[in-house]
Amino acid sequence: MSVWFVLLVEKILSSEASCTFPQLQPAKNMSETRLKQLRIKTGVLKRCCKELISYQKEAEQIQEKIKKMQDEGQEVYYIKKQDLLLQETQNVIPDCQKRFNSAFQDLKTLVDEDKSLEESEEYQAASASLQDTSSHVTA
């Protein structure tokens, strides 16, 4: 072995001994863990809902644009390009809907499980999000 390699290994080993890692603090109690889960799942639900609505609006806008292009007698090439764009958007919607339904069900289960947190603002926000987004849930 080369001298440089030995010196490098010795340096690494000596620095490892002096290296300190911060201790991970366990959650103080179960309610903090539940509150954190509520915050995370509420955020996921809101994001999935916004994404779903965005894709649905985009599909509607593209359909309107295609209709307008057809009415104006635009070239078939450009209409087909818009139609491909519409197909791509419509292909994404079922996956978004599936993720949204899953996020909704996860949050609903968490809210229904633990009624002891009803006083917390995280619980209130989760309940409000469930009510606001319930119209977008599909079977």
UniProtKB/TrEMBL annotation:
Domain of life: Eukaryota
Any one GO molecular-function label of the UniProt entry: beta-tubulin binding
Subunit (UniProt): Supercomplex made of cofactors A to E. Cofactors A and D function by capturing and stabilizing tubulin in a quasi-native conformation. Cofactor E binds to the cofactor D-tubulin complex; interaction with cofactor C then causes the release of tubulin polypeptides that are committed to the native state.
Signal peptide: 1-17
Organism listed in the record: Scylla paramamosain (Mud crab)
Alphabetized Gene3D superfamilies for the sequence: 1.20.58.90
Protein task: Tubulin-folding protein; involved in the early step of the tubulin folding pathway.
Name assigned to this protein: Tubulin-specific chaperone A
Lineage: Eukaryota, Metazoa, Ecdysozoa, Arthropoda, Crustacea
Cellular component, GO annotation: cytosol; microtubule
Sections of the chain in a coiled coil: 45-72
GO biological process: post-chaperonin tubulin folding pathway; tubulin complex assembly
InterPro entries linked: TBCA, TBCA_sf
Keyword entries, A-Z: Chaperone, Coiled coil, Cytoplasm, Cytoskeleton, Microtubule, Signal
Protein family per UniProt: Belongs to the TBCA family.
Location in the cell: Cytoplasm, Cytoskeleton
